[in-house]
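fyi for ur records
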Amino acid sequence: MAPKGRTFFLIFFVACAALAVEHDRTQGKKQDFKYMTKTLMKKCQDKGYPRPQMGLLKTVFARSDVPGKDEDKDEDKDQPDTPLTSFMNILDSVVPGGGSLSRAHPGDVDKMKEEMMNFSNLPSMIKKMRNSSEASACYMKAFVASLCWKALTKKGSNNTDSDDYDTLLSGTKPVVLDMPSTGVNFPEKLAKKDVKKWAKMLREMYVDMREEKRAKVLGWEKEQITQNYFGCTTMPKSDSKSGEMQRCKSSVKWLNSDALMTLGPFLSYLKAADLDSSPKEVLQEFFKSGKLKEALGPVRRMVPRFAKRLLQRLQECCRKEEFAPHMEKLGMLVCYYNPPQNLTRNLSKKLLSLLERCDDDSYPRIKKLKKYLANSMISNVNISQELQELGKSITSLPATTLSKIPSADLLKAIRKYRPDYKWTRGQKRALLRKIVGSKKCKDISREELVGLGSVASCLPNCILKHVRASELLNDIEGLRNISKRMNKGRMKALLQGLYKNTGPSELVKKLPENLLRCMSLKSLQEANITSWDQVGGKNWTREQATLLMQKISKTIKFKFSNRMRKISTVLQGVTCKMIEKTSDNDVPDMVRSITSASRLLSKMQVRCAARRLFARRLKGRPDFFQTITEEEMRDIPMNFLPYMQPEEVMKLPDSVCSVLLDKMEEADPSSSSAGLPSRLALTQRALRFLTKGSSTSSLAIEDVERLGPFLCYLPPPQLQLMDSGVRNYSLETMASCKHIPEKHKADLIQLIKKNYGPGSTWSAETTEALFPLLASYDDCPVDLPFDKPWMKDLLYYLNECQSCKSKTLRKKLFDTIVDNKLDAARRKRTVSGRNDGSTTGVKVPTTELIEELKSNNVFWEAAQLKLMSRETFTETVDTLGDVPDFRADQLSVLSQKAIEAFGPLSQMTEDEVVQLGCITRGFSNKDLQALPFSLDTLEDIADCDWDDIQMEAVWRAVAKYNNQTAQQLGEAEIVSLNRFICGFSSSEIKQISVDAFKEAVDSINDIQCSFTGFQKLKTLVMAAFGPPRSWTETIVSGLGNLIVGLNATDLSELDPPVLSFLKISSIPSITPKNLKGLSVIQLKAFGPDNAAMVTKEQLAALNNDQLSALENAKNGIDMRNTAQPPESGGPSLTMEGIMSFMKPVLFLLMGILLL
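which gave:
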């Protein structure tokens, strides 16, 4: 090669290498001091904190703290590299608007950082900030936290003075809590003394940490323990951080006493198998000394299998009877403790007190155990003292026991307890009889009423309507306590009583949150509310917010400003028109206001805000997304980014991808529409950056972590290409996804089967990890190992999982619970050698089974329910009556059981009908009309699966028993009727007072009726609010589900902007024929939330233009003109793709030339 050619080639090689290095540098930017500081400062800005005052800044950043500076020397006064000027430089890039103080050159910031990390007075800055408020010191803490983190994680930090080290460590808390999980790289190796200091700090922050960060802390602390105490590593050989250190053998007992103390609450994140790494004597001493209880203090939930294994290890020390006196040292583990049957009275009392922290719904045995212990403590010898000792567990006493306790003793005990205790329907009726006796509508003084606490929720409306407002409004805490568990009918009755002597303006000032949210739109309209200050700091409903936004905006021109953060719940009523009218100068305030309230807002409101922001950015700068800077990307909220066009996402430059990944890692997936094409585009753009344009086979676990919830949008083919360890991590992380694209689901299940093998062979760890994902399918797509003993605890997860809709798994839970009880009974008979002649192997409902199964009692066969004894039915009627979806054949059996238990229908009392709950659906319509239904209790059975004819029969029974007519109904009665108003005849609906209906409507706007029922109510709706063409956002929002009664012509008259304020639960109930009456413009205005609720049957009725409009409403994008991002995971023709290809080629050519 000619000399010139070689020179040119060398220049080309160096340039390419520089580009490659630049890419790597950008990828590692998360650890850069300035980057970290800006990220933390942005958190302060998002919280609405103002820039700190210069006086405070000069106090904290006193020049005497900087080594080598003399404040008296004039030549030093304007030096550009002081901490204060460097702080201001970074602050101005995040929150513009500072004064004229000299700024440091950006290049001087890193130089200053090194100086700051080496000077001894950084701790004094931290101490000065301790007396400052969070708002005033937030930005300074962000700056100092980054410095402290860098100082403590660099080599040589072990030489820092002990006291200074502790102070610097305390200054790092914002980094640990507020930086994305992957942005927090703990020191690779610390001395033992420093590990203990770090562990202490991390334990203090456990409660405020996110789940993924807790898991990361556990992994890091475990590694520090094994390195320091055992000279080995838990990291895989492939991990570069493991170095030459030997891998720890499985026999290493690393979980010693120091390790247990170090981990503290992070113990709860260990795997069950890790417990075998703790010597028996060490673990038991840790328990008996009380240190385990202290360690688990902040823990609120543990994986059942881990908890049971830990408890098992602890109980190896002694027999059950010897272990019982130590149970107060169990901490959270007490929720899994199975005590011996011969507990002393004192131990029973102690255990009941400990069990108060255990929620009945989360722990299968707890309710039964509490009931047993509570009953064992009631001897009727000294009933008053016994009730006092029961504490919260008084709610475990059955209604029959409560009814036998003297009223004075019972009421005395109740007044001492918290207001939020839960009572069953039967218990409420027993308590009601103790309170009011035979006189249902007696007068109750304020002291008596407030003393009842949560029991006031069972008082009849006629008592609540006559409360004295002047007395009760002076005791806001008492008012809050008695109304905390009231249903809407009783709250409306209480408000009706308060209205008598108090105007709506006064009520707005004084009402506690739960009652304020029940205040009608009509009353709010009448209140003298003219400023934003009057509504700030209150938790309004969306309907109320819509009215207040319109009402106040008529008096004061609406404008986004920093004060809007104080009225975040009122922003639920902001319209897209208001957002679109925001001036360019006010857009930053609009963005911050919308972001602070984003969890409350509809996706339509967020989308409008995103579009307004993007319009401002693109104004005069069409290439904004191609040339966007880090600061500009940081200023865009994460929930706005999915509303970019996919092609705009794919053009984002590499220089902003670190910021993008930070946002993605901590994104809230519920804040934007699940089906947005840009979600997939964001995932692919992030992947292109992380893989440098190559395939997903190059990804490490740390890369996958950076995707956050956007991992859920990774197509199975890209998952398949990953390294096996990374793929396993990804699949197990995806198990917690709230949404996986429908087109990915089938392939994802196939990948899981291929990756882990047949489900019946899975280990407990694998099943546990993947279970939430499998439970989200309608039918479990994998044959799980249901015969394993640990599956029952896993199936119990269904009871607390909101997204688990698998009926197959619920049936499996039913079978597992019932079969386990059968097996236990069979073993008991075998051990005792007793054969009592009872039928073996037959599934018979028992009290214990029914109480444990709860809503899963729906899986009993009618023939099995017939085998239930009368005593069992009587004891469990409250539980069975709560099941809303029994089939007709099951209800037929249960209604007969009711007659056997309570006698003929003609003799049934109001209390017995209340106890039956949803079982009353099993009676004929004629029989329903003869039952003594109380108007006050209809809300308790409103969720049962009633049909129109049954609802009419129930209304007839109510009218007869309560001597009530439609004309006499007030607002409290209308609200108490709930969905049974749909059982009225057309003539009866015309008799309802329009004023009473307007006062009640926004409290019944969530009722479920058939189209026929809603259609009958349309005449009342029109009489109250006029024709649909005149309806505002406030009216549409307030009507809620009642909108379903409109026909196609009525719907077509609605103004398009109001359609995004439709209640989402109303959409599926609109008939396909009527929905078809909406125009293209109206459907486009539906908004993402409402568009997502349209059913397949409704879609089938729409034409192509309407379908396209609905898709536009759902995703904000015209799908016919949208290019989809690639999903293959292969290299793309971008700079990083070219460089990934060119680097090895260049090295090869260089080698050839040097031969």
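The longest helix spans residues 807-832. thats all i got for now
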